[in-house]
Amino acid sequence: MKKLLIIMLLAISVTLQAQQVDDANWQSRVKVPQGYQFSPLGTQSTTYTVNGFDNFWLGTDFGEPYIATNPKDPLNSVCAYNINNFYYTLDGVNWIKGYPNFPGYSVIGDPVVTYDSLGNVYYLQMYQNGSEYGAAVGKSTDKGVTWSMFSSAYSSTAGLGDKPWITAVQSGGPYSNYLFVGWRQFGSTGMCVVRSTDGGQTWSSPITLSGDQGAYVAAGPNVNIPGGYIYFACTSGGSIILYRSSDGGLTWSYVSTPSSMAGPGVICYGRYTVKNCIRTDNFPRMAVDNSWTSTRGTVYIAFAANPAGPDNADIFVVKSTNYGLNWSSAIRVNDDATTTDQWMPAITVDSRTGRVYVFWYDSRNDPSGNLLTEMWCGTSTNGGNTFINNKVSDVQFNPNNMAVGQGQNQANYIGDYIGNSSIGKTAINVWTDARFNNMGSFVAYSPDFAMLANPNSAFLHSGNDSATFTIKVPAIRGPFDDNVRFTSTLDTLPTSGSIILNFINGKDSITTFPDSVYLKAKIQGSVPPKAYYVTVTGRGTMGAPVHKRSIILYVGVNTLTIGTNREGVCEYKVNGTQFNTKQTLVFVTGSNVTVQALSPKVVGGTQYVFQNWSDNGDTTHTITVNNNISLTAFYKIQFKLIMNSSIGNTFGGNVFYDSATAFTFGVTGRFVNYNNQTYQFRGWTGSGVGSYTSPDSSGFDTVVTRPNGIINPIVQTARWLQVTSVQNISTEIPKEYKLYQNFPNPFNPVTTIEFDIVKTQDVKLQVYDILGREIRTLIETNLGAGKYRVQFNAVDLPSGIYFYKLTTPDYTNIKRMILMK
To answer: pLDDT (tens digit, 9 = 90+) per residue, 326-361?
Structure first.
């Protein structure tokens, strides 16, 4: 058997280094960030369409998705994300978040799902009940909507059971609908597998197999016996090894070593990683061809590996056409010529067509940065010999934007696996996507077709009015060679008259691409006026891929599209009903409608003030809807200047100013007598972009003008210093003016200054430095005749010689003092 070319001596030490750590605890419970927000139960999916192709956004979860499709209903699929986030679809388009509560089990993650041939869903989660670890399995008999039975596939007190996988025998044969679970048992002897022969009610005792990690299980035919072979693949050292059971999982035998490999990416904290130390793995994913085609029985194993040369991560498949005994050389699935990363594959084989689908993360379209990532799929229609690649996701994303740190000296986490499930000539794929800078949950088909409806609305009047719509498939992805058939449905049947939907010339299918069909909508009789919604659905022959587009028929009505230039903030009313987002409202033609703009709207430090309607109508006015009208209420934005001051002599504050309009604020004087105390203004402290902060504490900037205007709410805080308190120390009326020498002198840092005033008048006491610069005004007030004392605190001044000056209309004197620190 020819081994994979990536086996190199330099890779052996790296493989052993990573394996040593991974063996100890490869898939420990992930750490959910504090405050992480998951999508709530009942969440409905959202379809994002780019150039006619759909990605279905399910919500926000925590990585590690797995998906399965009902073999009896191709439109029914289920998928699960980590920490028990479960979704189901009944039409292949709309997904709903459910909740299997696993009563009696404290589930901790690693979800996987499978169907049996009867359409029953099985959902496995690891659990921990105190010192007991295990895997709980839930069963749904109604396509994943409700859950009726739960059991423990295995339990152990020896340690965590890591990364279990589950499969069911979906074919006939003696082991039809048997269930199998494989896992790695830490604290025990290695790889384990169990089976259930009664639909998950009871489980066998574990059978132990040698190996390190992986534990992938799959079922396939044994020559002419459907489901006659059960396969178990795992890693051992730097190789993948395979076990097989021919008696329905009762006993197992080692069969072969399908491939050797070096793990993908680079080693970071003992793990295989890509990008910014995001952990990945080199474990096998396996699928078996159960179709009745020429490739029936072929076993496929997909894995990511580090090839020879500068490339760090590629996707490979090996296959066996003799039930796992011998294996092909490795086939590289990704067909790009770059050295960018491809990692974390999922594989499925369709049981009707034998087509092989491999799905993975891919950075090929960022060859210089090897960072921006997309989801890609490889499809093989020739038994895995070659693969046709195509992109699946519509938006590039940086996986680091969703990566979660797992603690010091740990690689980051985005989940350790993704999933895909075959549906005839297509597969449905599920992954975790960082396009919204979180761990978004997405689903998409591949191969796939794009679908557009043009126009998406029409106005019809009474009588036999009609409109024609083009339903187009402008492009396909991958080797899509299916037919697409379209159907149309009306959401509400009119209570009188009728709306007839027909595809022109009876053509409702497309067999070559690009191509279009034409849908005609015609009214007959007296159809009540309203908006009727038409859903156009396009499907492949197996029911999937499936896509839906909406068309609105406005019958006897017109629309009022109304909103504000401050979407989501400013509010308005239409006939008394209040909105704050743009609305398209339907009214019977000729209706009188009253619109009202609500103003002002204050949000924190921002105010929105109504200016005008786009039709120049009054704040409240009535319009007649005789045609389609678009109306916008325009609001100007104002920002608040919040003024903080312990002294109440400010102006210009606590006012909303028009955006980008000049404004002025200030205090009315540098010195203020407040509660018999004298305060000196020392400057401003500003908060917010565009605010003003004084460059020093001189206090000469009592008035500030900002000519460039205000661009957001700001806060201006006035700083004040209590300079002195004036104490009248005697009732004696002095006979003459006098300024006494301060005491003590020299001083540090407080000294006392006394003076006499012979009559009532304005008094000023100032302090200057040796250069004659005023540094403090101790008094600036009106005093009656008397003897006075003030204290001067120079704690903020340097040592040196200072002068103090007493000034009245009739007297001036200056004395010297010395500050020694």
So the answer is: 999 999 999 998 999 999 999 999 999 999 999 999
The mean per-residue pLDDT over the stretch 80-89 comes to 94
Separation between Cα atoms, residue 134 and residue 147, nearest integer Å: 19
Residue 293 CB-density burial (10 A; 0-12 exposed, 13-18 middle, 19+ buried): middle
Q: Which residues lie across from 424 on neighbouring strands? A: none
According to DSSP, residue 401 is labeled: G
Is pLDDT of 18 > 70? no
Predicted confidence at residue 17, as pLDDT, reads 35
Q: How far is the C-alpha of 219 from the C-alpha of 323, rounded, in Å?
A: 11
What's the DSSP call for residue 743? B
Structure confidence at residue 29 (pLDDT) = 52
Query: Residues spanned by CATH 2.60.40.10 within the chain?
Result: 452-555
Per the structure block, which two tokens stand in for 77? 């699929």
Superfamily (CATH) of domain 452-555: Immunoglobulins (2.60.40.10)
- Looking at the chain, the whole-number percentage of residues with pLDDT higher than 90 is 83
Here the tokens at position 31 are: 């750490």
Tokens of 642: 């919040």
Mean pLDDT is lowest, of 319-328, 401-410, 564-573, 635-644, for: 401-410
**Which pLDDT value is given to residue 671?**
78
CATH topology of domain 9-446: Neuraminidase (2.120.10)
Decide if pLDDT at 374 tops 50: yes
SS3 state of residue 216: strand
φ and ψ at residue 24, rounded to 5 degrees: -70, -40
Distance CA 432, CA 66 (A): 11
For residue 170, give the nearest of 417, 426, 356, 352 by alpha carbon. Answer: 352
CA-closest candidate to residue 519, choices 474, 457, 586: 457
Task: Report the alpha-carbon angle 103-109-113, nearest 5.
Answer: 80
Q: Residue 404 gets which letter from DSSP?
A: B
Distance between CA 451 and CA 556 in Å, rounded? 29
Residue 258: both structure tokens together: 């399908």
As a whole number of angstroms, the distance between CA 593 and CA 576 comes to 10
Q: Match 């022969």 to its residue by tokens.
A: 197
Q: 577, 574, 573, 490: which is closest to 535 by C-alpha? A: 490
- For residues 261 and 165, give the distance between their C-alpha atoms in angstroms, rounded to a whole number: 22
Tell me the helix, strand and coil percentages in the chain, rounded to 5.
5, 55, 45
What burial class does residue 83 get, using C-beta atoms within 10 Å of its C-beta: 0-12 exposed, 13-18 middle, 19+ buried? buried
* Structure tokens given for 139: 């069963």
Choose which CATH entry (1.25.40.10, 2.60.40.10, 2.60.40.2310, 2.60.40.1930) describes domain 725-819: 2.60.40.1930
**Residue ranges matching CATH 2.60.40.1930 in the chain:** 725-819
Name residue, tokens 């005033």.
757
Q: Are the C-beta atoms of residues 229 and 245 closer than 8 Å to each other?
A: yes
- Nearest Cα neighbor of 81 from 138, 122, 123, 46 is 123
Q: What are the backbone angles phi and psi of residue 217, rounded to the nearest 5°? A: -120, 145
Decide: 124 and 166 in contact? Cβ < 8 Å: yes
SS3 at position 503: strand
User: Position 772: which residue type?
Assistant: G
Find the mean pLDDT for residues 80-91. Answer: 94
Tell me, what amino acid is at 290?
N
Reported in sequence order, the residue ranges of 103-201 that DSSP labels E, i.e. its strands, are 107-115, 121-129, 132-140, 149-156, 161-168, 179-185, 190-196
Cβ-based neighbour number of residue 708 at 10 Å: 10
- Is 557-637 CATH 2.60.40? yes
Which pTM value belongs to this model? 0.78
| Omega cis (within 30) before 345 | no
User: In Å, what is the CA distance from 32 to each residue of 97, 131, 159, 386?
Assistant: 19, 21, 21, 40
For residue 763, list its beta bridge partners.
Answer: 781
